Amino acid sequence: MKLTFDHPKATRGRPVFLDDDGSVKTPGIALYIIRKEFLGMTAAKFGVLLGVSRRTVNGWEQGRRPAAVSLYMLKNKLNDRLNGLRK
Fold first, then answer.
1. What pLDDT shows up at residue 37?
2. Structure letter (DSSP) for residue 39
3. Which of 13, 50, 54, 83: disulfide with 43, CB 3.0–4.6 Å?
4. What pLDDT shows up at residue 85?
5. Segment of 27-31, 54-58, 64-68, 75-79 carrying the highest mean pLDDT
6. Who's near 9: CB < 8 A, 6+ residues apart?
7. Domains (ranges, CATH) in the chain?
8. Are 71 and 3 in contact (CB under 8 A)?
9. Coil, helix or strand for 24?
């Protein structure tokens, strides 16, 4: 899964999530997959990582759109975490 701003559907400063096959995922589904399957975190721990509440994370996963700045923070924090795991 990839979070990118370089896609035709990435508009108004909002990135899109791309699956491994290149298909666009809705933010809620993508965030759930990242949180649960990739990171193995609870919504509360994921919220701490991003600096938001558990309720905010649950709202995103249920279809409320995260602010573009939150998605940008998510991208940076996940990249930092992945880089830390690779070292």
1. 81
2. S
3. 54
4. 63
5. 54-58
6. 16, 24
7. 2-86 (1.10.260.40)
8. yes
9. strand
> Which SS3 state, helix, strand or coil, does residue 48 take?
helix
State both tokens at 1.
């899964």
Structure tokens at 57: 């994370």
Q: Assess contact for 40 and 21: CB atoms under 8 A.
A: no
Per-residue pLDDT tens for 58-70? 998 888 877 777 7
User: CA 59 to CA 86: how far, in whole Å?
Assistant: 31
Q: In this structure, what token pair is assigned to residue 34?
A: 């990242």
CA distances 46 to 11, 77, 82, Å, are: 25, 11, 15
Q: Which two tokens stand for residue 11?
A: 């508009």
Looking at per-residue confidence, does 54 or 71 come out higher?
A: 54
